[in-house]
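Retro notes (design track)

What went well: tokenization of the new backbones is finally stable.
What didn't: we kept losing track of which sequence belonged to which structure.
Fix going forward: every design gets posted as structure first, then sequence, in one message. First example under the new rule, 282 residues:
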């Protein structure tokens, strides 16, 4: 047999012996570490779910509850990982030093991502809004569907989801109308009509919607302006954001029908023009 082949076979045999010796020596440690890790993951998941359910039963904010539950899970997994590594005879101290050095370099490379997470932590702790609130920020308006550490997810009545990085939320002006959105409607009535009767009719019509529209604060109806063709009545209604357009269109139709039933004229834009007789030129 060729001498080079014999050398290669000897090297393979030596590697095989090393592998067998490793598993014979450390097999129980490896199996024990795997069992500890799997058991730790199961316990972390159970404890996280239990803590989340406990906080929800005590009506704690859902965003803060999820954040605390995630922190509990990560903490348990980290503790289990340290125990599993110790079972394998691996020292954690140099590993932590290496992770710290790598983390410093990675932190410099992903500053934008880390700023999103730090902003998300600020939102979770200060809670300028919670799930279900209607907010306007950076020219975007929607109802808060989810709050993550990296981004805030908004949605609207059409089901469109809008993702805003949290670094663009913290430090900005936020308009929060909670679960409702303000609708402002203007209706003109003729100058010959009785505005008090028209206002009473509109208020009665809106109160007929009951709990479908917000009654606290109650809808506001009054004279907004005096236009060229009629008296402008202003209506301000707080509508649930998730049904905003549906209720707005129904309210507009109901108010139109109410004014029509009361015989109150809704004028169209008009202008009176008078022609004056001028003496003819000589």
């Amino acid at each position: 047999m060729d001498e080079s082949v014999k050398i290669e076979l000897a090297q393979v045999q030596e590697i095989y012996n090393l592998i067998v010796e490793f598993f014979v020596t450390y097999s129980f440690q490896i199996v024990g570490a795997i069992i500890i890790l799997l058991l730790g993951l199961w316990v972390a998941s159970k404890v996280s779910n239990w803590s989340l359910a406990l906080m929800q039963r005590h009506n704690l904010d859902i965003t803060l509850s999820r954040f605390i539950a995630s922190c509990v899970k990560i903490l348990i997994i980290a503790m289990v990982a340290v125990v599993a590594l110790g079972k394998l005879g691996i020292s954690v101290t140099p590993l932590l030093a290496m992770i710290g050095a790598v983390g410093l370099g990675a932190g410099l490379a992903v500053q934008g991502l880390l700023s999103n997470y730090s902003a998300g932590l600020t939102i979770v702790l200060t809670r300028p809004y919670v799930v279900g609130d209607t907010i306007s920020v950076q020219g975007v308006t929607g109802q808060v569907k989810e709050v993550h550490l990296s981004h805030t997810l908004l949605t609207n009545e059409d089901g469109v989801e809008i993702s805003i990085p949290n670094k663009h939320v913290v430090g900005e002006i936020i308009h929060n109308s909670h679960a409702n959105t303000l609708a402002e409607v203007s209706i003109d009535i003729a100058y010959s009509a009785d505005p008090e009767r028209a206002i009473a009719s509109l208020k009665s019509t809106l109160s007929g919607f009951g709990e479908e529209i917000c009654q606290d604060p109650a809808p506001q109806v009054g004279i907004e302006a005096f236009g060229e063709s009629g008296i402008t009545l202003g209506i301000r209604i707080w509508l649930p954001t998730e049904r905003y357009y549906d209720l707005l269109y129904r309210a507009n139709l109901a108010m139109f029908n109410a004014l029509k039933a009361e015989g109150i004229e809704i004028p169209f834009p008009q202008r009176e023009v008078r022609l004056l007789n001028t003496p003819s030129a000589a």
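Added context from the reviewer: The two ends are 136 Å apart (CA to CA).
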